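Ticket #4471: structure output looks truncated?

Reporter: J.K.
Steps to reproduce: submitted the chain below (262 residues) through the standard prediction queue, then opened the result file.
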Amino acid sequence: MIRLRPRSSLAIVLVSVAGLLAFLWPLFAGAGSSITQNGEAPLVFAFMLPLLLAVVLAEIAEGGLDVKAVAMLGVLSAVGSALRPLGAGTAGLETVFFLLVLGGRVFGPGFGFVLGATTLFGSALITGGVGPWLPFQMIGAAWVGLGAGLLPPAKGRCEIALLAAYGALAGLLYGALLNFSFWPFAVGGATGLSFVAGGPMLDNLHRFAVFTLTTSLGWDLGRALTNAVLVVLTGRAVLGALRRAARKAAFDAPVVFAEPRA
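Returned output as attached by the reporter:
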């Protein structure tokens, strides 16, 4: 496991708080706020989140990602970027998140956070999916990898069951968060699905729940099921391979430079 320094952990916390604000601002924005009237929110946060993510990547790189860890990060990001188009989100079949779960589990929360962000960024470049939605996808995937690294210890079948359950839950929460990023502008008019600027928080949460249930629950359930099945089918083999690679790389070992010969 690649350990985080306190400053890197603080950077992740601060960016996570900013990310939550980026997703959940509709619950706190007032009726007269300009951000609710002209659709500026997605663009504002789309510009802000990459800058904050860059700070986190720099902090983690300084604190725990050496050359070997960066190489492993590059390999897993490339594999994840190549896997994602295979599912393409059709009926919720996302083939990338199980790798974020397993990678975060083996290499730790900081590595998982970076892996989620870089994998979604790489896959967007491959598929042409670059747009205002990408930063939201990156921070959501980063949280998936982060959470996997924070799961409690477990071994054998218990570990696979834990990771499969987490993968399913993460798939549902990821879908809900992404819905929050566009829900205020997706439904117009006074319907039971639409966002009401300045409305009571519980009322807007109810409207959002109805919106999610009627528009995306099927895709979210597909993602959750795909995550769980792929973890069950591949978890033991992939975890074993990643752990062998981690042992050979000896990420926790101090770097010793040989003195030049006289």
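Triage note (M.O.): checked the attachment and the full token line is present. DSSP finds ten helices and no strands in the chain.
Status: closed, working as intended.
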